[in-house]
Write a structure and sequence with these properties.
alpha/beta, Rossmann fold, six-stranded parallel sheet, 14 strands, globular, binds nicotinamide-adenine-dinucleotide
Length: 330
Protein backbone atom coordinates (compact mmCIF):
# COMPACT_ATOMS: atom_id res chain seq x y z
CA UNK A 1 0.00 0.00 0.00
CA UNK A 2 1.18 3.51 -0.76
CA UNK A 3 0.59 6.38 1.67
CA UNK A 4 -0.91 9.52 0.16
CA UNK A 5 -2.06 13.01 1.14
CA UNK A 6 -4.66 15.22 -0.53
CA UNK A 7 -3.71 18.88 -0.84
CA UNK A 8 -6.73 21.20 -1.16
CA UNK A 9 -10.04 19.84 0.11
CA UNK A 10 -12.52 21.58 -2.19
CA UNK A 11 -14.64 19.98 -4.92
CA UNK A 12 -11.74 18.09 -6.50
CA UNK A 13 -9.99 17.31 -3.20
CA UNK A 14 -13.19 15.62 -2.02
CA UNK A 15 -13.51 13.71 -5.30
CA UNK A 16 -9.93 12.43 -4.97
CA UNK A 17 -10.45 11.58 -1.28
CA UNK A 18 -13.57 9.54 -2.01
CA UNK A 19 -11.78 7.51 -4.68
CA UNK A 20 -8.54 7.08 -2.70
CA UNK A 21 -10.64 5.63 0.15
CA UNK A 22 -12.13 3.08 -2.29
CA UNK A 23 -8.72 2.04 -3.60
CA UNK A 24 -7.07 -1.01 -1.94
CA UNK A 25 -3.57 0.09 -3.00
CA UNK A 26 -3.72 3.53 -1.39
CA UNK A 27 -3.89 4.67 2.21
CA UNK A 28 -5.01 8.24 2.85
CA UNK A 29 -2.91 9.53 5.75
CA UNK A 30 -3.41 13.31 5.59
CA UNK A 31 -5.50 16.12 4.21
CA UNK A 32 -4.04 19.61 3.80
CA UNK A 33 -6.30 22.60 3.39
CA UNK A 34 -5.60 26.20 4.32
CA UNK A 35 -8.98 26.08 6.11
CA UNK A 36 -8.94 22.64 7.81
CA UNK A 37 -11.78 23.72 10.11
CA UNK A 38 -14.03 23.83 7.03
CA UNK A 39 -13.44 20.18 6.07
CA UNK A 40 -16.65 18.89 7.71
CA UNK A 41 -18.66 21.85 6.45
CA UNK A 42 -17.37 21.35 2.90
CA UNK A 43 -18.44 17.69 3.06
CA UNK A 44 -22.07 18.73 3.19
CA UNK A 45 -21.65 21.46 0.61
CA UNK A 46 -19.18 20.02 -1.91
CA UNK A 47 -19.92 22.39 -4.80
CA UNK A 48 -18.87 21.33 -8.26
CA UNK A 49 -20.86 21.02 -11.45
CA UNK A 50 -21.73 17.34 -10.89
CA UNK A 51 -21.76 14.84 -8.02
CA UNK A 52 -19.05 12.23 -7.59
CA UNK A 53 -20.47 10.65 -4.40
CA UNK A 54 -20.46 11.21 -0.65
CA UNK A 55 -17.68 10.69 1.90
CA UNK A 56 -18.51 9.20 5.32
CA UNK A 57 -17.43 11.91 7.85
CA UNK A 58 -16.62 9.16 10.42
CA UNK A 59 -13.81 7.83 8.22
CA UNK A 60 -12.19 11.26 8.00
CA UNK A 61 -11.88 11.47 11.80
CA UNK A 62 -8.83 9.17 11.65
CA UNK A 63 -7.03 11.17 8.97
CA UNK A 64 -4.46 13.80 10.03
CA UNK A 65 -5.23 17.38 9.04
CA UNK A 66 -2.87 20.24 8.30
CA UNK A 67 -3.33 23.84 7.28
CA UNK A 68 0.18 23.95 5.83
CA UNK A 69 1.71 21.63 3.23
CA UNK A 70 5.25 22.08 4.65
CA UNK A 71 4.08 20.94 8.07
CA UNK A 72 2.47 17.86 6.52
CA UNK A 73 5.72 17.04 4.70
CA UNK A 74 7.66 17.38 7.98
CA UNK A 75 5.29 15.23 10.03
CA UNK A 76 4.06 12.49 7.71
CA UNK A 77 5.79 9.71 5.81
CA UNK A 78 3.98 9.84 2.52
CA UNK A 79 4.76 8.35 -0.88
CA UNK A 80 2.56 10.57 -3.03
CA UNK A 81 0.38 13.68 -3.04
CA UNK A 82 -2.82 14.50 -4.88
CA UNK A 83 -2.66 18.23 -5.57
CA UNK A 84 -6.18 19.68 -5.84
CA UNK A 85 -5.64 23.39 -5.21
CA UNK A 86 -6.38 26.06 -7.76
CA UNK A 87 -4.26 26.27 -10.89
CA UNK A 88 -2.15 29.25 -9.76
CA UNK A 89 -0.69 27.03 -6.97
CA UNK A 90 -0.04 23.93 -9.11
CA UNK A 91 3.60 24.74 -9.90
CA UNK A 92 4.60 25.76 -6.37
CA UNK A 93 2.92 22.75 -4.71
CA UNK A 94 4.08 20.19 -7.28
CA UNK A 95 7.67 21.50 -7.11
CA UNK A 96 7.68 21.29 -3.31
CA UNK A 97 6.37 17.72 -3.43
CA UNK A 98 8.93 16.57 -6.02
CA UNK A 99 11.80 18.25 -4.17
CA UNK A 100 10.68 16.20 -1.14
CA UNK A 101 10.79 12.99 -3.25
CA UNK A 102 7.02 12.50 -3.47
CA UNK A 103 5.16 11.16 -6.48
CA UNK A 104 2.69 13.76 -7.76
CA UNK A 105 -0.84 13.43 -9.09
CA UNK A 106 -1.73 16.98 -10.12
CA UNK A 107 -5.14 18.30 -11.13
CA UNK A 108 -5.46 19.75 -14.62
CA UNK A 109 -4.51 22.14 -16.10
CA UNK A 110 -0.80 21.28 -15.58
CA UNK A 111 0.33 24.94 -15.25
CA UNK A 112 -0.51 27.97 -17.38
CA UNK A 113 3.21 28.72 -17.78
CA UNK A 114 4.91 26.38 -20.26
CA UNK A 115 8.38 26.89 -18.72
CA UNK A 116 7.05 25.91 -15.28
CA UNK A 117 5.55 22.70 -16.67
CA UNK A 118 8.82 21.88 -18.45
CA UNK A 119 10.72 22.45 -15.21
CA UNK A 120 8.39 20.08 -13.30
CA UNK A 121 8.85 17.38 -15.96
CA UNK A 122 12.64 17.69 -15.64
CA UNK A 123 12.48 17.69 -11.84
CA UNK A 124 10.33 14.53 -11.80
CA UNK A 125 12.91 12.83 -14.06
CA UNK A 126 15.80 14.00 -11.89
CA UNK A 127 14.08 12.72 -8.76
CA UNK A 128 12.84 9.50 -10.47
CA UNK A 129 9.28 10.25 -9.32
CA UNK A 130 6.00 9.78 -11.20
CA UNK A 131 4.31 13.00 -12.30
CA UNK A 132 0.84 12.58 -13.76
CA UNK A 133 -1.75 15.23 -14.61
CA UNK A 134 -5.38 14.30 -13.85
CA UNK A 135 -6.84 14.31 -17.37
CA UNK A 136 -9.89 12.38 -16.23
CA UNK A 137 -11.70 12.24 -19.60
CA UNK A 138 -9.01 9.82 -20.86
CA UNK A 139 -10.25 7.44 -18.14
CA UNK A 140 -14.04 7.89 -18.53
CA UNK A 141 -15.78 4.76 -19.92
CA UNK A 142 -17.85 6.55 -22.63
CA UNK A 143 -14.70 8.26 -23.93
CA UNK A 144 -12.63 5.07 -23.66
CA UNK A 145 -15.23 3.44 -25.92
CA UNK A 146 -14.87 6.27 -28.44
CA UNK A 147 -11.07 5.89 -28.46
CA UNK A 148 -11.42 2.14 -29.03
CA UNK A 149 -13.80 2.68 -32.00
CA UNK A 150 -11.41 5.20 -33.55
CA UNK A 151 -8.36 2.95 -33.00
CA UNK A 152 -9.97 -0.30 -34.20
CA UNK A 153 -12.01 1.32 -37.03
CA UNK A 154 -14.98 -0.74 -35.82
CA UNK A 155 -17.37 1.58 -37.71
CA UNK A 156 -14.92 2.36 -40.51
CA UNK A 157 -12.73 5.43 -40.86
CA UNK A 158 -13.36 8.46 -38.66
CA UNK A 159 -14.65 11.38 -40.73
CA UNK A 160 -15.96 14.04 -38.32
CA UNK A 161 -15.76 14.37 -34.54
CA UNK A 162 -17.63 17.04 -32.58
CA UNK A 163 -16.79 17.45 -28.88
CA UNK A 164 -18.65 19.78 -26.54
CA UNK A 165 -18.56 20.83 -22.88
CA UNK A 166 -20.86 23.56 -21.57
CA UNK A 167 -21.30 24.71 -18.01
CA UNK A 168 -22.48 27.60 -15.91
CA UNK A 169 -19.78 29.83 -14.44
CA UNK A 170 -18.32 28.00 -11.38
CA UNK A 171 -19.98 29.36 -8.25
CA UNK A 172 -18.48 27.12 -5.54
CA UNK A 173 -15.36 27.08 -3.36
CA UNK A 174 -12.68 29.58 -4.23
CA UNK A 175 -13.99 30.07 -7.75
CA UNK A 176 -15.68 33.36 -6.88
CA UNK A 177 -12.28 34.78 -5.85
CA UNK A 178 -10.76 33.32 -9.02
CA UNK A 179 -13.28 35.30 -11.04
CA UNK A 180 -11.81 38.54 -9.81
CA UNK A 181 -8.19 37.33 -10.04
CA UNK A 182 -8.53 35.69 -13.45
CA UNK A 183 -5.85 33.07 -12.64
CA UNK A 184 -7.66 29.91 -13.77
CA UNK A 185 -6.89 30.54 -17.44
CA UNK A 186 -10.62 30.76 -18.06
CA UNK A 187 -12.86 28.08 -19.55
CA UNK A 188 -10.36 27.36 -22.34
CA UNK A 189 -7.67 26.11 -19.90
CA UNK A 190 -10.03 24.84 -17.24
CA UNK A 191 -13.00 23.25 -19.01
CA UNK A 192 -12.44 22.99 -22.76
CA UNK A 193 -8.95 21.56 -22.09
CA UNK A 194 -10.71 18.26 -21.28
CA UNK A 195 -11.74 17.88 -24.93
CA UNK A 196 -8.58 19.43 -26.33
CA UNK A 197 -6.56 16.93 -24.30
CA UNK A 198 -8.77 13.98 -25.30
CA UNK A 199 -8.52 14.73 -29.02
CA UNK A 200 -4.76 15.27 -28.68
CA UNK A 201 -4.53 11.88 -26.89
CA UNK A 202 -6.54 10.07 -29.57
CA UNK A 203 -5.65 11.85 -32.83
CA UNK A 204 -2.51 13.85 -32.01
CA UNK A 205 -1.65 17.49 -32.62
CA UNK A 206 -3.65 19.01 -35.52
CA UNK A 207 -1.93 20.81 -38.37
CA UNK A 208 -4.40 23.69 -38.29
CA UNK A 209 -6.75 25.22 -35.70
CA UNK A 210 -9.37 27.83 -36.64
CA UNK A 211 -10.80 29.28 -33.47
CA UNK A 212 -13.20 31.96 -32.25
CA UNK A 213 -13.68 32.89 -28.63
CA UNK A 214 -15.76 35.13 -26.38
CA UNK A 215 -15.12 36.66 -22.95
CA UNK A 216 -16.85 35.73 -19.69
CA UNK A 217 -16.34 36.32 -15.96
CA UNK A 218 -13.08 34.33 -15.73
CA UNK A 219 -11.19 35.41 -18.83
CA UNK A 220 -11.34 36.70 -22.39
CA UNK A 221 -11.71 33.08 -23.56
CA UNK A 222 -14.62 31.61 -21.60
CA UNK A 223 -16.38 30.37 -24.74
CA UNK A 224 -14.48 28.72 -27.59
CA UNK A 225 -15.60 27.27 -30.90
CA UNK A 226 -12.81 25.69 -32.93
CA UNK A 227 -12.24 23.52 -35.98
CA UNK A 228 -9.16 21.30 -36.14
CA UNK A 229 -7.82 19.71 -39.30
CA UNK A 230 -5.00 17.28 -40.02
CA UNK A 231 -2.83 17.44 -43.13
CA UNK A 232 -2.89 14.26 -45.19
CA UNK A 233 -6.24 13.28 -43.66
CA UNK A 234 -9.89 14.19 -44.23
CA UNK A 235 -10.71 14.10 -40.51
CA UNK A 236 -12.21 17.30 -39.11
CA UNK A 237 -12.77 17.97 -35.43
CA UNK A 238 -15.03 20.56 -33.88
CA UNK A 239 -14.44 21.57 -30.27
CA UNK A 240 -16.98 23.78 -28.56
CA UNK A 241 -17.27 24.71 -24.91
CA UNK A 242 -17.56 27.37 -22.30
CA UNK A 243 -18.88 28.50 -18.96
CA UNK A 244 -20.49 31.80 -19.87
CA UNK A 245 -23.92 30.64 -18.69
CA UNK A 246 -25.39 31.38 -15.25
CA UNK A 247 -24.14 29.23 -12.34
CA UNK A 248 -27.23 26.99 -12.19
CA UNK A 249 -27.11 26.14 -15.91
CA UNK A 250 -26.91 22.30 -16.18
CA UNK A 251 -23.48 20.90 -17.02
CA UNK A 252 -23.44 19.00 -20.29
CA UNK A 253 -20.67 17.32 -22.24
CA UNK A 254 -20.54 14.80 -25.02
CA UNK A 255 -19.57 13.84 -28.52
CA UNK A 256 -21.11 13.37 -31.97
CA UNK A 257 -19.12 11.27 -34.39
CA UNK A 258 -19.47 10.47 -38.05
CA UNK A 259 -17.63 7.29 -38.97
CA UNK A 260 -17.68 5.82 -42.47
CA UNK A 261 -20.39 3.27 -41.56
CA UNK A 262 -22.22 4.75 -38.55
CA UNK A 263 -22.90 7.92 -36.60
CA UNK A 264 -22.55 7.97 -32.82
CA UNK A 265 -24.05 10.24 -30.16
CA UNK A 266 -23.16 10.53 -26.45
CA UNK A 267 -24.37 13.29 -24.14
CA UNK A 268 -24.23 13.50 -20.36
CA UNK A 269 -27.83 14.79 -20.50
CA UNK A 270 -28.75 11.17 -21.29
CA UNK A 271 -25.56 9.67 -19.87
CA UNK A 272 -26.62 6.02 -19.57
CA UNK A 273 -26.50 5.27 -23.25
CA UNK A 274 -24.59 5.83 -26.46
CA UNK A 275 -26.69 5.89 -29.65
CA UNK A 276 -25.27 4.34 -32.80
CA UNK A 277 -27.13 4.62 -36.10
CA UNK A 278 -26.75 4.22 -39.85
CA UNK A 279 -29.19 5.07 -42.67
CA UNK A 280 -31.62 2.28 -41.76
CA UNK A 281 -31.55 1.66 -38.00
CA UNK A 282 -30.38 3.04 -34.68
CA UNK A 283 -29.47 1.18 -31.49
CA UNK A 284 -28.38 2.03 -27.96
CA UNK A 285 -25.54 0.57 -25.95
CA UNK A 286 -24.67 1.22 -22.28
CA UNK A 287 -22.32 4.20 -21.99
CA UNK A 288 -20.74 3.22 -18.67
CA UNK A 289 -20.51 5.71 -15.83
CA UNK A 290 -18.41 8.77 -16.78
CA UNK A 291 -17.94 9.44 -13.02
CA UNK A 292 -15.90 6.21 -12.80
CA UNK A 293 -13.16 8.10 -14.63
CA UNK A 294 -12.11 9.59 -11.28
CA UNK A 295 -11.64 6.13 -9.75
CA UNK A 296 -9.96 4.82 -12.90
CA UNK A 297 -7.39 7.63 -13.15
CA UNK A 298 -6.46 7.29 -9.47
CA UNK A 299 -6.16 3.49 -9.78
CA UNK A 300 -3.93 3.96 -12.80
CA UNK A 301 -1.72 6.42 -10.91
CA UNK A 302 -1.58 3.96 -7.97
CA UNK A 303 -0.40 1.17 -10.30
CA UNK A 304 2.24 3.48 -11.77
CA UNK A 305 3.70 4.34 -8.37
CA UNK A 306 3.46 0.74 -7.11
CA UNK A 307 5.38 -0.56 -10.12
CA UNK A 308 7.49 2.58 -10.63
CA UNK A 309 6.25 2.78 -14.22
CA UNK A 310 5.78 5.98 -16.22
CA UNK A 311 2.07 6.80 -16.89
CA UNK A 312 2.09 5.92 -20.59
CA UNK A 313 -1.66 6.64 -20.87
CA UNK A 314 -1.15 10.17 -19.55
CA UNK A 315 2.47 11.31 -19.71
CA UNK A 316 3.24 14.82 -18.43
CA UNK A 317 4.78 15.64 -21.83
CA UNK A 318 1.38 14.98 -23.44
CA UNK A 319 -0.38 17.13 -20.81
CA UNK A 320 2.09 19.93 -21.58
CA UNK A 321 1.26 19.53 -25.29
CA UNK A 322 -2.42 20.09 -24.37
CA UNK A 323 -1.50 23.37 -22.65
CA UNK A 324 0.37 24.47 -25.77
CA UNK A 325 -2.68 23.50 -27.87
CA UNK A 326 -4.90 25.67 -25.63
CA UNK A 327 -2.63 28.64 -26.39
CA UNK A 328 -2.93 27.84 -30.11
CA UNK A 329 -6.67 28.67 -29.85
CA UNK A 330 -5.95 32.30 -28.97
N1 LIG B 1 -10.82 17.12 -13.22
C1 LIG B 1 -11.96 17.79 -13.10
O1 LIG B 1 -13.03 17.35 -13.53
C2 LIG B 1 -11.93 19.12 -12.38
C3 LIG B 1 -13.13 19.72 -11.99
C4 LIG B 1 -13.07 20.93 -11.27
C5 LIG B 1 -11.84 21.49 -10.97
N2 LIG B 1 -10.68 20.89 -11.38
C6 LIG B 1 -9.35 21.50 -11.06
O2 LIG B 1 -9.10 21.26 -9.67
C7 LIG B 1 -8.46 22.40 -9.07
C8 LIG B 1 -9.27 22.85 -7.86
O3 LIG B 1 -10.60 23.17 -8.26
P1 LIG B 1 -11.86 22.99 -7.23
O4 LIG B 1 -13.08 23.17 -8.04
O5 LIG B 1 -11.67 21.75 -6.44
O6 LIG B 1 -11.63 24.27 -6.30
P2 LIG B 1 -12.21 24.60 -4.82
O7 LIG B 1 -12.22 26.06 -4.69
O8 LIG B 1 -13.48 23.83 -4.61
O9 LIG B 1 -11.10 23.96 -3.83
C9 LIG B 1 -9.79 24.47 -3.65
C10 LIG B 1 -9.36 24.12 -2.22
O10 LIG B 1 -7.97 24.42 -2.07
C11 LIG B 1 -7.77 24.96 -0.76
N3 LIG B 1 -6.52 25.75 -0.72
C12 LIG B 1 -6.29 26.98 -1.27
N4 LIG B 1 -5.02 27.36 -1.02
C13 LIG B 1 -4.43 26.38 -0.32
C14 LIG B 1 -3.13 26.19 0.23
N5 LIG B 1 -2.17 27.12 0.10
N6 LIG B 1 -2.88 25.03 0.91
C15 LIG B 1 -3.84 24.10 1.07
N7 LIG B 1 -5.10 24.23 0.57
C16 LIG B 1 -5.39 25.34 -0.11
C17 LIG B 1 -9.02 25.81 -0.52
O11 LIG B 1 -9.25 26.10 0.85
C18 LIG B 1 -10.12 24.93 -1.16
O12 LIG B 1 -10.70 24.05 -0.19
C19 LIG B 1 -8.33 23.45 -10.17
O13 LIG B 1 -7.02 23.41 -10.70
C20 LIG B 1 -9.32 23.00 -11.24
O14 LIG B 1 -8.91 23.33 -12.55
C21 LIG B 1 -10.72 19.71 -12.06
Amino acid sequence: MKKVAVIGFGFMGMTHTLNILKNPDLQLVAIVDKNPELIEKNLFNPGGNFSTGEIDPEILKNISRYSDFDECLRQEEIDAVHICVHTELHYEMAKKALLNDKHVFLEKPFTLDIKEAEELIELAKMKSRILMIAHVVRFMPPYQKLKKWIDTKEFGELKFLSMSRISGVPGWGEWKEQQSKGTSGGALFDLIIHDIDFVNYVLGVPSEIKSSYLPGLLSKNDYVSAMWSYSGSNVHVKIEGGNTFHSTFPFQAGYMVQFENASVLYTTLNGNEIRIGDDTSISEIPAGDAGEGYYNEISYFAQCILTNTQPAECLPESSLESIKLCYNHL
